[in-house]
C-alpha cells in the first residue's frame, strides 16, 4: 500500500487548488516523494498499475526504476482488462534505451488488444512480433506462447486468424500452416479471407500440393469458398500438373450453383497453355463465350502465349492484330512482350524488332521483360554485339538491368569464348548493387571450363565460397568435369567427397558426372564403383548413367562388359537410346566383332530407333578401318538419301581412306567439297577462318591443327589441307601463306591439293603474279600441276582481263602433259563472254565438242547469258533449243541465270553428295559425282 501523510497548506495556495481541479473533478493527490528504490516488487507493480489506471502517465516516467521483462509481464497481467493502460506502458517500455520487450510480453499485449477489438493495433504489433523473430524456432515459440496465454485467460482466438494471415502474406508458409493446424485443436475456424491468403501464397511458393490439402481441410470444416478461392485452387491444380482435375473442379463449382468468374477461366486457360494443349485451351475459350464471360486482355495474352509455345508465330500475331482491331480490350506491353519473346525464342529477331517498334509507335513503353527477351534472343544466335546494344539502351528507356539481364548477357559472352568480358559484366553488376547469384558463378565456371582455363575456374570456385555463395549441383558438376578434363584426379576426388558431404547423395547429375569423368580417362573400374555407391545411397541410375558406362567400356575395348550393362539396363526396363547403340557399334568395330553390327542395327529398328549422323559416322568409320570402303560408301549413300548431312569427321574419314588406297585425285576432289561445311565447331578452324592472324599466333595455330588432327583421328596432312583451303576460301590467302610456311618448317609435305588451294586463293584475290609464283614453287618441290591447278591460273588471268595470256596457257597444256577438261573450256568461254567476244566463245564450244568433251549446263548458260547481253536473242534461243535437244537438262527452265541452272543440275544428275549442294562460281573445280560401277564407287569431277 502507498502511504500518505497530511500536509498543512497556506490559505492562498488552498484557494488556488480549489480553482484548478484535476481531470477527475477532485483535488489532485500530492505525494511526498520517497525512495522508490526501497519499494518492494509488489509495491512497485501496484504503484505503476495505479498510475496507469489513473492516467498519470507522466508520473511513471518520474519513478526511479528499471524496466525488465518480469516487471512488464506482471503489469500486463495485472491490467489485462485495461488495454489503453497496457498499450501505453508497452510503448513507454519500447522507447527505453537499454530495454526491449520480449516475445512473451508481445504475445500478452496482442491478446489484450484483440480482446478489446483494437484490431488495427493488434495487427501492427503482430507484424512487429513476426519481424522480431529471426528464425523458425522463435516463430514456433511465438505460437506456443500465444496458445499458452489464451488457455490461461480464455481470450479471443481472433488473434490466431490474424497471425495466420500475416504469416501467409510474408510468405512464411510453414509457420502459417502450423497456425492453421493448431486452430482446429481449439475448435476455431479460420476466416475465409485468411484461408485465401494462405492458399494464394502456398501457390506462389510452388507449394501447390499443400494448398490442395489445406483446401480439402477447409471443405471438410464447412468453409464455403468464394470466387477468389476458386481461382486460386484452379491455379494450384494447374501448377501441380493436374490440369484435368482443375477443369473438373470448375465443373463441380458450376454444378453447385457457384458463379465462376473470368479470373478462374484464365487460370484454367493458363494451365492448358503451359501444357502446350491448345485444343483444350480453345475449348475453354469457347466455354467462356457460352457462359457469357467476355475475354479480357489476359485471356488474349494467354492465347498469344499458347501459339508462341507451339512456335505458331503467325497465328500468335493474328491474335494481337485482332485485339487491336476489335478494340474491346486494350493492348498493353504484356501482350506485345509475349509475342516479342516468342519470336526471340524461335530466332526470328527481325520480326521481334518489328513487333517492338510497332508497340512503341502506339505510345506504349519498353519494359524490362521485352529487353531481356531481346538480349536472350541475340545471345542464343551468337549476335553478342546486338545483345550488348540492347543492354546499353536500357538507360535510354529509363530501365535498370536486373540479375537476369546481366546473367543472360554474361552467358552470351562466355558461350562466345569471351570470358574476360563476362567478368567485367560481373564486376559492373556488383557495383550496381546486384548480388551475383549461384547462376552467375555457374555461367562463369562453365565459360572458363569450356575455354580450358581450369585453374581460373578453380580460383573462381574458392572466391564463390569466400563470398558466401553456396554451390549447387550445376556448380559442383561443372567444376568436377573441369578437374577431370585437366587431369587433376586428386582434386576431382576431393571435390566429390565435398559434394557428398553437402548432401547431394540423391543427385543423379553428380553421380553421372563422376562416372563420366572416370570413363573419359579410361578408369572404368572406378566408374563402376561409383555406380555401385550410387545404388547403395538410394539414387537410382537413369538412361544417361547406363549409357555412360556402356560408352566407357566400349572405348576401353571391353565390349562384353558393355553388353552386360545393356542387359542390366533392359532388366530394369530402361529403354536403350540411340546414343547407347552408337557406342556399341563403335565398340564392336574396335573389338573386331563386326558380325554383331547387323544384329545391333536390326535391334535398333525393332525398338523404333532411327540411325542418326553419329550412327552412320560409326558405320562409315568402322567399315573404312576394316578396309571395306564399298560398305562405307553404301552407308554414306543411305545416310544422304535420308536427308542427313555428313559432318567433317565422316567426310575426312572417306578422304583419308581414299588417300590410303592411292586414289589421290578422288580424295582431293572430295576434300574440296568438305570446305562447304561449317567448321566452326572445331576450335582451330574457328580461329583460322575468323579474325586476323598475327605472326606470334602462327605457332599456336600449328599446334592446334595437330591437336585437331589427333581429336578427329585424321592424318595431319588432311587437317592442314582443310585449314589452308578454308582460309583461302574465306579470302585470308595471306594468312594461309603464313600458316603454310610454318607448317613446311614442321615437315609438312604439300601435295597438289595444297598448292591448288593457294593458287586458286591468289587468283580469286586478283594477285595472278603470286599465283604463278606458287606454281613455280610447286614445280621446284617436284609436285606436278594437274588440270585443276591450271584451271585456277586461267581463272585468275580471265578475271584480271589477261585473256590473251590465258589463251596462251591453254594452248600450252598439251605440251605440259595435261588435257583440258570441261572446266578449262568453261573458264575461257566465260572470260570471252564477259569481254563481249561471244564469237570466240562459240568457237571454243565447238572445239570442245570436236575433242569429245560434252558442253555442260554451265557452258550453255554462260553462252546464252553472253548472247542475251549482246542482244543476240535469236542465237540465244537456238542455243537453248540445242541444249534441250542434247539432253543436258530436262524440263522447262530459265537458263539465263547460271546459279539456277547449276542448282537444277544438282537435282537432275545421278547419285551425288547431296550434302554438297553449294556451288562454286564459274571456274572452280565444280561438283563431285559419285557413281556406282559394279560393287565399287568412283568419285569423279562432274560435267560442270
If you had to describe this structure to a student in words, what would you say it looks like?
By secondary structure, the protein is an all-alpha fold. 68% of the residues lie in helices and 1% in strands. Strands 1-2 form a two-stranded antiparallel sheet. The radius of gyration is 42 Å and the shape is elongated.
Task: Write a compact overview of the structure shown.
This protein has 944 residues and is mainly α. 68% of the residues lie in helices and 1% in strands. The protein contains 51 helices and 2 strands.
Strands of the largest sheet, in order across it?
Answer: 1-2
Q: Which ranges are low-confidence, i.e. pLDDT below 50, for 5 or more consecutive residues? A: 1-34, 676-698, 890-944
Fraction of residues in H or I helices:
55-70%
Q: Which percent band covers the strand fraction?
A: under 5%
The radius of gyration computed from the alpha-carbon positions, rounded to a whole number of angstroms, is: 42 Å
Distance from first to last alpha carbon: 122 Å
Mean pLDDT: 78
Features:
Putative pentatricopeptide repeat-containing protein, 944 residues, disordered C terminus, TPR-like_helical_dom_sf, PPR_rpt
Topology (SSEs and partners):
Layout: H1 11-19, H2 41-53, H3 57-62, H4 69-78, H5 83-94, H6 103-115, H7 119-132, H8 136-153, H9 158-169, H10 173-185, H11 192-204, H12 208-221, H13 227-239, H14 243-255, H15 262-275, H16 278-290, H17 297-309, H18 313-326, H19 333-345, H20 349-361, H21 368-380, H22 384-392, H23 403-415, H24 419-431, H25 438-450, H26 454-466, H27 473-485, H28 489-501, H29 508-520, H30 524-536, H31 543-555, H32 559-571, H33 578-590, H34 597-606, H35 613-625, H36 629-641, H37 648-660, H38 664-674, H39 683-689, H40 698-711, H41 716-729, H42 733-745, H43 752-764, H44 768-780, H45 787-799, H46 803-812, H47 822-834, H48 838-850, H49 857-869, H50 873-885, H51 898-908, E1 928-933, E2 936-941
Antiparallel strand pairs: 1-2
Helix pairs in contact: 2-4, 4-6, 5-6, 6-7, 6-8, 7-9, 9-10, 9-11, 11-12, 11-13, 12-13, 13-14, 13-15, 14-15, 15-16, 15-17, 17-18, 17-19, 18-19, 19-20, 19-21, 20-21, 21-22, 21-23, 22-23, 23-24, 23-25, 24-25, 25-26, 25-27, 26-27, 27-28, 27-29, 29-30, 29-31, 30-31, 31-32, 31-33, 32-33, 33-34, ...
Amino acid at each position: 500500500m502507498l502511504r500518505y501523510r497530511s500536509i498543512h497548506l497556506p490559505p492562498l495556495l488552498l484557494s488556488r487548488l480549489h480553482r484548478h481541479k484535476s481531470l477527475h473533478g477532485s483535488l489532485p493527490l500530492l505525494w511526498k516523494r520517497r525512495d522508490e528504490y526501497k519499494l518492494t516488487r509488489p509495491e512497485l507493480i501496484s504503484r505503476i498499475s495505479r498510475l496507469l489506471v489513473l492516467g498519470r502517465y507522466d508520473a511513471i516516467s518520474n519513478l526511479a526504476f528499471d524496466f525488465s521483462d518480469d516487471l512488464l509481464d506482471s503489469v500486463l497481467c495485472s491490467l489485462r482488462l485495461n488495454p489503453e493502460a497496457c498499450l501505453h506502458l508497452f510503448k513507454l517500455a519500447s522507447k527505453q534505451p537499454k530495454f526491449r520487450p520480449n516475445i512473451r510480453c508481445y504475445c500478452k499485449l496482442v491478446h489484450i488488444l484483440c480482446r478489446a477489438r483494437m484490431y488495427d493495433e493488434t495487427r501492427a504489433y503482430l507484424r512487429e512480433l513476426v519481424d522480431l523473430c529471426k528464425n523458425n524456432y522463435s516463430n514456433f515459440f511465438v505460437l506456443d506462447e500465444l496458445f499458452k496465454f489464451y488457455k490461461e485467460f480464455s481470450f479471443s482466438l481472433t488473434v490466431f486468424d490474424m497471425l495466420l494471415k500475416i504469416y501467409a502474406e510474408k510468405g512464411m508458409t510453414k509457420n502459417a500452416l502450423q497456425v492453421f493446424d493448431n486452430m482446429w485443436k481449439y475448435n476455431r475456424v479460420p476466416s475465409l479471407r485468411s484461408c485465401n491468403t494462405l492458399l494464394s501464397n502456398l501457390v506462389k511458393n510452388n507449394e501447390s500440393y499443400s494448398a490442395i490439402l489445406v483446401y480439402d481441410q477447409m471443405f471438410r470444416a464447412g468453409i464455403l469458398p468464394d470466387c477468389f478461392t476458386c481461382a486460386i485452387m484452379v491455379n494450384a491444380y494447374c501448377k501441380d500438373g493436374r490440369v484435368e482435375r482443375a477443369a473438373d473442379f470448375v465443373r463441380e463449382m458450376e454444378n453447385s450453383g457457384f458463379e465462376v468468374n473470368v479470373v478462374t477461366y484464365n487460370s484454367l486457360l493458363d494451365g492448358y497453355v503451359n501444357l502446350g494443349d491448345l485444343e483444350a485451351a480453345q475449348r475453354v475459350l469457347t466455354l467462356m463465350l457460352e457462359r457469357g464471360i467476355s475475354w479480357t486482355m489476359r485471356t488474349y495474352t494467354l492465347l498469344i502465349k499458347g501459339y508462341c509455345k507451339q512456335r505458331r508465330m503467325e497465328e500468335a500475331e493474328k491474335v494481337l492484330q485482332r485485339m487491336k482491331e476489335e478494340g474491346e480490350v486494350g493492348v498493353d506491353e504484356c501482350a506485345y512482350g509475349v509475342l516479342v519473346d516468342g519470336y526471340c525464342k524461335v530466332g526470328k529477331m527481325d520480326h521481334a524488332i518489328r513487333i517492338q517498334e510497332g508497340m512503341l509507335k502506339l505510345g506504349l513503353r519498353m519494359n524490362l521483360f521485352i529487353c531481356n527477351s531481346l538480349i536472350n534472343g541475340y545471345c542464343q544466335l551468337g549476335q553478342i554485339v546486338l545483345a550488348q546494344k540492347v543492354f546499353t539502351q536500357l538507360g535510354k528507356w529509363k530501365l535498370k538491368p536486373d540479375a537476369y539481364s546481366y546473367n543472360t548477357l554474361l552467358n552470351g559472352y562466355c558461350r562466345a569464348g569471351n570470358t574476360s568480358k563476362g567478368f567485367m559484366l560481373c564486376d559492373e553488376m556488383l557495383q550496381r548493387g546486384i548480388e551475383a547469384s549461384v547462376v552467375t558463378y555457374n555461367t562463369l565456371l562453365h565459360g572458363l571450363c569450356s575455354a580450358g582455363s581450369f585453374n581460373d575456374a578453380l580460383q573462381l570456385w574458392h572466391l564463390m565460397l569466400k563470398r558466401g555463395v553456396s554451390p549447387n549441383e550445376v556448380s559442383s558438376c561443372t567444376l568436377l568435369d573441369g578437374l577431370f578434363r585437366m587431369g587433376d584426379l586428386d582434386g576431382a576426388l576431393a571435390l566429390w567427397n565435398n559434394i557428398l558431404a553437402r548432401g547431394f547423395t540423391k543427385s543423379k547429375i553428380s553421380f553421372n558426372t563422376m562416372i563420366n569423368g572416370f570413363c573419359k580417362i579410361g578408369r572404368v573400374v572406378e566408374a563402376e564403383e561409383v555406380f555401385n555407391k550410387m545404388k547403395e545411397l538410394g539414387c537410382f541410375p537413369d538412361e544417361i548413367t547406363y549409357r555412360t558406362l556402356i560408352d566407357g567400356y566400349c572405348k576401353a575395348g571391353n565390349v562384353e562388359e558393355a553388353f552386360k550393362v545393356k542387359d542390366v539396363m533392359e532388366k530394369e526396363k530402361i529403354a536403350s537410346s540411340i546414343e547407347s547403340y552408337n557406342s556399341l557399334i563403335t565398340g564392336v568395330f574396335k573389338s573386331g566383332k563386326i558380325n554383331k553390327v547387323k544384329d545391333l542395327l536390326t535391334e535398333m529398328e525393332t525398338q523404333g530407333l532411327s540411325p542418326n549422323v553419329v550412327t552412320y559416322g560409326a558405320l562409315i568409320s568402322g567399315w573404312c578401318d576394316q578396309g571395306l570402303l564399298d560398305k562405307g560408301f553404301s552407308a554414306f549413300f543411305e545416310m544422304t538419301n535420308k536427308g542427313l548431312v555428313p559432318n567433317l569427321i565422316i567426310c575426312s574419314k572417306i578422304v583419308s581412306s581414299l588417300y590410303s588406297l592411292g586414289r589421290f585425285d578422288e580424295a582431293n576432289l572430295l576434300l574440296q567439297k568438305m570446305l562447304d561445311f561449317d567448321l566452326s565447331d572445331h576450335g582451330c578452324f574457328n580461329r583460322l577462318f575468323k579474325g586476323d592472324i598475327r605472326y606470334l599466333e602462327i605457332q599456336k595455330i600449328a599446334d592446334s591443327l595437330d591437336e585437331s588432327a589427333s581429336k578427329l583421328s585424321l592424318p595431319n596432312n588432311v587437317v592442314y589441307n582443310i585449314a589452308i583451303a578454308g582460309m583461302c576460301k574465306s579470302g585470308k590467302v595471306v594468312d594461309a601463306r603464313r600458316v603454310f610456311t610454318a607448317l613446311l618448317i614442321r615437315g609438312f609435305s604439300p601435295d597438289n591439293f595444297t598448292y591448288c588451294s593457294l593458287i586458286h586463293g591468289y587468283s580469286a584475290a586478283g594477285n595472278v603474279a603470286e599465283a604463278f609464283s606458287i606454281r613455280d614453287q610447286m614445280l621446284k618441290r617436284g609436285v606436278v600441276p594437274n588440270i585443276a591447278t591450271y584451271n585456277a591460273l586461267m581463272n585468275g588471268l580471265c578475271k584480271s582481263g589477261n585473256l590473251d595470256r590465258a589463251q596462251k596457257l591453254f594452248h600450252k597444256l598439251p605440251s605440259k602433259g595435261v588435257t583440258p577438261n570441261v572446266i578449262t573450256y568453261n573458264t575461257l568461254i566465260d572470260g570471252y563472254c564477259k569481254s563481249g567476244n561471244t564469237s570466240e566463245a562459240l568457237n571454243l564450244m565447238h572445239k570442245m565438242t570436236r575433242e569429245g568433251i560434252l558442253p555442260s549446263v554451265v557452258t550453255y548458260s554462260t553462252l546464252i547469258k553472253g548472247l542475251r547481253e549482246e542482244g543476240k536473242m535469236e542465237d540465244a534461243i537456238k542455243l537453248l533449243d540445242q541444249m534441250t535437244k542434247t539432253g543436258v537438262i530436262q524440263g522447262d527452265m530459265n537458263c539465263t541465270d547460271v546459279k539456277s541452272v547449276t542448282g537444277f543440275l544438282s537435282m537432275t544428275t545421278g547419285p551425288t553428295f547431296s550434302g554438297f549442294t553449294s556451288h562454286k562460281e564459274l571456274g572452280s573445280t565444280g561438283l563431285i559425282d559419285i557413281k556406282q560401277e559394279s560393287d565399287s564407287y568412283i568419285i569423279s569431277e562432274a560435267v560442270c
